[in-house]
Structure formats: structure tokens, C-alpha cells
Amino acid sequence: MSFSQLYSPAFRERNRDHFAAIVRIALSDGIISEEEEAFINRTAINLDIEESEVAKIKANLDAYPINPPATRERRLERLFDLSRMVFADHIADDAERNLLKRLVIGLGFPTEDVNEIIEKSFIEIQKGSSEEDFVTSFK
């Protein structure tokens, strides 16, 4: 049995959709910097996204929905990845921030808390928090 067969199609689909959201942030300013590309490549490996699928995702981002996780902890893990992508090139520009707002709402966080959640996530990323510390900081 191969590694990729250990996971259900729904699990792989959620990973693919999450990966597409990460790429969407990288492309929000129209270009993917070297740092963003490196982050994308590492994330593709971590999420078991094949190179051919990475190219398809980049070419057709609108085909991949947000697909929010069921638990708050999983949503925070996704937020961690998305926030790291914003800072991959050390610049959190307006296009990335606006897209992140839409993605945070799509992940199922309360609309009225979005700005606070984003600011807190940026503080944690800039501090260099691990995923575990990031998630814990929201409890």
C-alpha cells in the first residue's frame, strides 16, 4: 500500500483545497516570490500534493473551494498555514490581507472576529510560534 492510499479521497480533497487557498494567497499580488514558491513546494510535499496537481491548481484556482474543517482546532491549523503564507515573503500586503479575511470567514470563523483573529495570527507568526503554540494561543 502506498503512502497516498492511507488517506480517504475526502481527506486528500480537503488537503488539495487547503493547498489551493495557500497558492491563492501567494498569487494575490499577481506574482509568486522565491520565498512563496519555496513555501508552496514544502506545503505540497507536506500535504502529499503531486507536482502535476500543483500545476493544475495554479492554473485554475477558482476550481477549488475553501472546504472548511469540522473542528476549531483544524481551522486554526489551516489558519496557521495561511498566515505563514502571507509572511513567506516578509510582506503582508493589502491584497493578501483582504484575501485572508475572506478565507478566514470561509473557514468558519465568526465574521465579527475576523480582524482580531487575523491580527493575533500575524503576531504569532511574527513571533515564530510553532503550529502547536499558534493553536494554543487561540484557546
Which parts are unreliable, with pLDDT below 50 for 5 consecutive residues or more? 1-6
Query: If classified by CATH, what would the architecture be?
Result: Orthogonal Bundle
N-to-C order of helices and strands: HHHHHHH
How helical, in percent, are the residues?
Answer: 55-70%
Continuous helix count: 7
Please report the distance between the alpha carbons of the first and last residues: 38 Å
Topology:
Blueprint: H1 9-26, H2 34-46, H3 51-59, H4 72-86, H5 94-106, H6 114-127, H7 131-137
Helix pairs in contact: 1-2, 1-4, 1-5, 4-5, 4-6, 4-7, 5-6
Describe this structure in a few short sentences.
This protein has 139 residues and is mostly helical.
Note the main attributes of this structure:
single chain; 139 residues; TerB-like; 64% helix; disordered N terminus
Structure overview:
The chain is mainly α. It has a single domain, classed as TerB-like. The protein contains seven helices and no strands. The protein has helices at residues 9-26, 34-46, 51-59, 72-86, 94-106, 114-127, 131-137. α1 packs antiparallel against α2. The longest helix has 18 residues, at 9-26. Mean pLDDT is 89; it is low at 1-6.
